């Protein structure tokens, strides 16, 4: 640990000089940059600059205009406000400032002249001096810059040209140069390779991660298997997967062939009521089932449970192509492109929104996830999500279920772990779906964005139940459009690991002084990509501070072990013989098609024939009752469910409840500005303000309760003619103990910020250090002078055991 | 007053389908003997009652409900459950005048009867013959009640049905309105502190002119309504206008408000077009001249009846719109769900709101940017003129964004401005459909859009607006009961006991956390003209678009000019008003109420901590008894820890049958409704910030 931090320190020391060098280097391109400093990344070159530019602020930023200087570098379009503070040279490089946009996120550049607007492409020529520059971004932002009359015309024209030439519209292959511009410099590589994995979240990159998750959820009967460690069994699966404990690796290996792409049923999560959530691809049908195979397959599907519900996500859910189409339509509707001059009349906006079908798809995902969440609540079954590929909708639904049911997933760390678990390591095809390379559009579909929208819907309905805020989701949404993060730059964990730099390794903490990556000359083309979760790299601390709610962090309770919480099911369900019952949940009803499990259907195996029986209608209706019972929740009447944190957050899905994510899709569309209260630095959100005030008052209170003895001493000073030495000594101990006490107080008050005040009040009253200190003062200084009967009464509840001990210390 | 017993006793056997429910069996065993009686308001008289009546909860597929007694009084229809009286958990937010099972007679919008499974709209003709097995009452505040009459005695059922139908649907005289028999006296403290300016005395008008620095002339000649009965007792006209009596029968430009630059907004009723052209033109010229004389000799006129929808259009559109929210059973709602947005759009209500706001923005532009006087005209001068002039004032003058200012504005423009509330709200159930139109509601809708978009600029919250929109139909208040000042005067003169509470706002309003300086705000607008930045102005929309853009370029000043955004996604449905009774869309423990509760909680913490701190600072001997207090405060919030998103209106008390996942499987499930009490103390939700 220590050595590691030493290295970072060293690099920090080094970066500035290097940066200095680069700046002087880049000053060839930009004259007079010493006046208005842009805090460049190491190796970043400023290509063009325009002064006296005003940027239009969105309503969220406070509205109005901000004047400053516009820069175009190899990597980004940067805007530096006039009165911005001089950046601290020693600070870690931050990729994007608050007003910047990366070139790769830009979708369209439009110049607005006195009489016309023009879409600027790298090849076209501008016949007028632009008064205004509008940048349409892929992440649905619209940046609008206004050139002043005093801006030199050449600067306005030049910067427009420069941006248009360098932003690389839809050109395959150019992505690499962008990545290099951002991260390619030696200093940057060095800096990145010394950054740490966030230890608070679970990365699921080693077996430890999975074991932690098993422990966290209290799942028993499962183990982490490394059978796919070298990606031999399945190329798209992660190296580790969780399978039933009793299944040996050799047995497990035989099951891979029975599933599409070898994506066998894998454990994802356990509901505290004892149900397990699994996901898998569709069955390979044209394969012979041997007896042993069948046994293994059954065992991998059922885990330790006797009941298995397969949730089919293939049919009802939107296909990736649908999602892509809907998203494209939504984009055109929301962006309000001034260059295309096709705009929806205001009175037709709602029906056009409906016809994009985006909200329908959001609703569809949420509904499916809510059903699964209700099902899981019943306990003692495995719920297996099945999708032909197991790489799109399974990710969406599986993670949504967990967001709904598991309060841990509603914290930032938990949510990041969740995305890491269900998307990144699980092999969602980020690279093809986001289509950074613009090579073929066939695969492109913003499935992950759909997921983020779904989470936002939940967040919008239950804001108090989440630790993270809309800003966090928005930051994640924007990062998806930035081709710089290892998380999104591969289709599977295998691809990620095969990269030359092999990031997971370069990111693992190394003991001893880490050598600088000398391998840079060999692979100059591939900078190391950081994971998207390294927020400090991307955003300033101001923006990061808005990622979490100011107050009310949902307390994450310890998991209920063994899942014995709710076992009020009919026993008859799952104690009748080995072959558990399998049901299919499709279109919101349960059924039992005979070919649900291919090996159980008909003549493939005689092994189960004698045991096979039609599933009793009782258990079928029992299941439906279960689903019903959950959705008919009565939280207000049952106080225990009210406080059950695992009570799923069920979203309301009716027409008026599913809404457009205005903060994202409409955040800077030119026509829709007045939605949110401005949350600029000067005016905080009222919650922020109040929470801050509470914090302040608490500190004051803590101080006041301290200062009192101090005040008393001061009042009595003139009357006393004691030797100074004594007083100083006393003061010294007093101050010392008081300062140590405030430092103790700090975390406790933070910890209590989200709990209620009552325990807090008690705590402050019966805080252990205080009586010590008071007695301290009495003994050495105030003894016999001031009698405080009240205080004596007051601090009676404090543990008396500590008193003599500290006495001994002080003397 | 009206003897119902005398209605013919011939009984036609009703044919109905009886649904056997468990409750029914129980009922036969032990018919409740003692009738519970409603707590009558002072002056309230009970007409008839029937027992047992089954009140259905909202889903009619399940036929589930509560038995009780239905009463009809001269104030309301009320249902008292036989079951244990449900204790209100949060009494503080309850409406003081009516509870969750009360329907004040004026709230009734339509009554449907179910005869042989067929639903028919009840009109006067149907009352005579037979009574339905079930009556469905649609209220103007969008509640829906369903009562089953089949369990009660035929005679009683008939009586109650006819009683309800008679009192709710028949045309009646103003004297029958409950307000005239209400004998409740407003609390003395209310009498004392009257912060709302009522604009019923010359002083009020002088004061208002002084406040806005207007130099117009106060007219007192109409004190006895000699000039016109359609004009208020006192009003203000441009000082250039001469002898008023010579213009008798024609409209006057009536002063509404003066911009700080000196230009002013006037409204006038357009004289009837039947007049001979020359005369009309001459009079119109005089009016314009008088208006122009006010400031810099520039004036613009705007004929609202040309550019805005007629009041009949407004009425039709609202009728269509409200149907989406009058939910009788949840299945209907789920079915409408798929086409939600397009069906909303087809009603055109949102577009009418947009048009009104658009027009107001145009007027604001004339005043603010061009500094010209504006005269808005309309045939009556009391409908859309009121909407536009009030909106303009709210946008321009921060005073009207405070609670008291807003109430004064309603008094000035609507009540003193002679908006025909009686006709427009159709309080008396007149057959003449022509004059009924929810113009005032349209105004509140427009204000809601503004509040929604710029909530920090307003002292009041949307809950206040919702309650106000209900109060319009509350037959206790005199504010919204008359057609004009003359009408009010003449009715009240003949009324022997002048007992009407004069204001609609019952409880004294607590001050919110709103910045106090708002009351004494001065506009700090700097009119900066920035170069236009896009588009070519070829239509009026584009021009005002430009105005909006230039306004947007300035930093937002909540104490200055406020313009609404009018684009497609910006004009929204007033969720709180329209969806508050629909349990399916309530988010339990979520929605904006969750944030609000959190804020309240934090605020109380701040207050407590401050108090503790003060105690500590002031007295050396800290009193240990502050802790119970904190506990107490927190408990009051703790009980409301998980409020539904419809908070002050519908509680989650009996929402035990709420399917959350609208799947095919769920649709056949049962529901109970959660019609709940309504708060009167909207003030506690005065918007934060």
What does this molecule look like?
The complex is a heterodimer of chains A (811) and B (689). With 811 residues, chain A is an alpha+beta fold. Chain B is an alpha+beta fold and 689 residues long. Chain B has 21 helices and 14 strands. In chain B, the strands form three sheets. Chain B has an eight-stranded antiparallel sheet, with helices on one face. A four-stranded mixed sheet of chain B has the order 11-12-14-13. In chain B, a hairpin with a 2-residue loop joins strand 5 and strand 6 (118-121). In chain B, helix 11 packs across helix 15 (439-453) and helix 20 runs antiparallel to helix 21 (626-638). The radius of gyration of chain B is 27 Å and the shape is globular. The chains are: A alpha+beta (811), B alpha+beta (689). Chains A and B meet through helix 9, helix 10, helix 20, helix 23 and helix 25 of A and helix 9, helix 10, helix 11, helix 20 and helix 21 of B.
In short:
The complex is a heterodimer of chains A (811) and B (689). Chain A is of the alpha+beta class and 811 residues long. In chain A, a hairpin with a 2-residue loop joins strand 15 (581-586) and strand 16.
Mean pLDDT across all amino acids of chain A: 70
State the helicity of chain B in percent bands: 25-40%
Radius of gyration of CA atoms of chain B, rounded to a whole number = 27 Å
User: Major sheet of chain B: order of its strands?
Assistant: 4-3-2-1-8-7-5-6
Q: In percent terms, what proportion of residues of chain A is strand?
A: 5-15%
Distance between the termini of chain B: 51 Å
User: Which stretches of chain B are poorly predicted, pLDDT < 50 over at least 5 residues?
Assistant: 1-33, 496-539, 621-641, 652-689
Query: What is the residue-mean pLDDT of chain B, rounded to a whole number?
Result: 71
**What profile does the largest beta sheet of chain B have?**
8 strands, antiparallel
Tell me the total number of β-strands of chain B: 14
Estimate percent helicity of chain A.
Answer: 40-55%
Number of separate helices of chain A: 28
Number of strands of chain A: 16
Structural class of chain B: alpha+beta
> What oligomeric assembly is this protein in?
heterodimer
Decide which structural class fits the backbone of chain A. alpha+beta
Terminal-residue CA separation of chain A: 37 Å
Please give the count of helices of chain B.
Answer: 21
The 3D shape of chain B can be described as globular
| Envelope shape of chain A | globular
Low-confidence stretches of chain A: 1-35, 500-525, 552-578, 603-617, 631-642, 670-683, 710-811
